[in-house]
Amino acid sequence: MTKIENTVVDKILDKVKDKVYDAATGDPYMFDVVKRQVKWGLDGIWEDVVDEVFDVTDVTLIITFAFWSFFDFNKVLREV
User: What is this structure's pTM?
Assistant: First the structure.
């Protein structure tokens, strides 16, 4: 994969991570300490998730298919 493709995938994965965190901690009654634990847990496994994504040969197809429901994919591509 080229450096440009890596940059695009990194930005998309950062947005996905933010969406996952927001979804996991969206409860207004959740204590801040629990939100921090969820964030630390997500940070702990996120590097493995990123490594797996980059191991896939056709990253563009996988990301488009898997994360389409999380956000407006076209808007994200315009921001990149």
Answer: 0.60
